[in-house]
Inverse folding.
């Protein structure tokens, strides 16, 4: 059963929700398991552990979907780049500094296998009514990390690469796009019923490059997946695109849009009146604070549920300092139970 079908079947009885980064450091059971592995990457690449982390939040909370525990940098890792996660600093990648470095990139599909094995294990563990979401980083966001070598506030190296070497950057996006298509196809074969593309650094894209670096590669991914798996919904998360979000949906043909916390709710109500699945928007900090602030935030988004298909979710990932009881409150506010 796909998420969209689930929405239509449960629409009249109960609101739907899942939470970005619903598996992670705010859970003590996650921290206990993480302590058994030398690195975050080791945890991600151990199928039984990744499967266990994926289902941990569903044991606690009445969630309508599980999202596989992995990382958006598995694609560059599969392309042969050295990848590590340093505590307190985040990911570190071997950098692509110019077009000459593209020759380093060689696809190794075996590096997708642990995530796909974890997906199969999770699907076998979940009840039929709980959907399993697979995901990947969108090409622009993945390219940003590959060129920068780490996270950044502005990704200036990536922007400079795109301006200085337009053909080289296009070639990099093509390599990432093809690898992402292969990865997501394997995820569907392994049991993913819904896919999400995380364009986490959409806000860093110069306006003149949006068509080239976001719309074109995302459109290519969606088209390829729809040819092979027309029944699998694809949700895009164009974080930071603001009022280009509707154009993003039209241009890429994703089935659904994940809203970030900064986008105007009034603008969304005005511009998404068609049958496009929406999810998200709730500020993660409202979840940290809890109480009446959180309740009001939930009620604010009920207008989207009344207007069309909508799934309650955060506008970005749950943060580690989130109290567990606030997550329980969030689901209670959403579902009225």
């Amino acid at each position: 059963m796909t998420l969209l079908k689930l929405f239509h079947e449960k629409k009249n009885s109960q609101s739907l929700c899942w939470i970005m980064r619903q598996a992670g450091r705010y859970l003590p059971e996650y921290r206990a398991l993480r302590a058994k592995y030398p690195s975050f990457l080791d945890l991600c690449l151990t199928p039984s552990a990744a499967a266990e982390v994926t289902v941990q939040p569903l044991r606690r909370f009445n969630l309508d979907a599980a999202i596989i525990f992995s990382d958006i940098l598995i694609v560059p890792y599969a392309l042969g780049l050295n990848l590590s996660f340093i505590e307190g600093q985040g990911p570190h990648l071997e950098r692509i500094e110019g077009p000459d470095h593209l020759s380093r990139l060689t696809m190794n599909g075996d590096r997708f296998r642990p995530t796909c094995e974890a997906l199969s294990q999770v699907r076998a563990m979940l009840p039929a009514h709980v959907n399993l979401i697979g995901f990947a980083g969108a090409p622009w966001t993945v390219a940003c990390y590959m060129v920068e070598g780490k996270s950044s506030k502005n990704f200036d190296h990536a922007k400079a690469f795109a301006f200085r070497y337009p053909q080289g950057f296009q070639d990099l996006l093509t390599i990432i796009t093809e690898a992402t298509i292969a990865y997501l196809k394997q995820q569907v074969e392994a049991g993913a019923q819904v896919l999400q593309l995380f364009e986490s650094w959409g806000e860093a894209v110069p306006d003149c490059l949006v068509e080239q670096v976001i719309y074109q590669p995302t459109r290519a991914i969606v088209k390829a997946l729809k040819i092979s798996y027309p029944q699998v919904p694809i949700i895009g998360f164009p974080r930071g695109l603001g009022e280009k979000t509707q154009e993003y949906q039209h241009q890429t043909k994703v089935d659904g849009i994940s809203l970030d916390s900064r986008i105007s709710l009034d603008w969304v109500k005005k511009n998404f009146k068609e049958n496009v699945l929406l999810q998200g928007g709730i500020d993660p900090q409202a979840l940290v604070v809890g109480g009446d602030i959180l309740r009001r935030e939930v009620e604010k988004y009920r207008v989207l549920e009344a207007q069309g298909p909508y799934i309650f979710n955060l506008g970005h990932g749950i943060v580690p300092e989130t109290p567990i009881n606030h997550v329980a409150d969030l689901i209670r506010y959403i579902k009225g139970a």
About this structure: Residues 3-335 form a domain with the TIM Barrel fold (CATH 3.20.20.210).
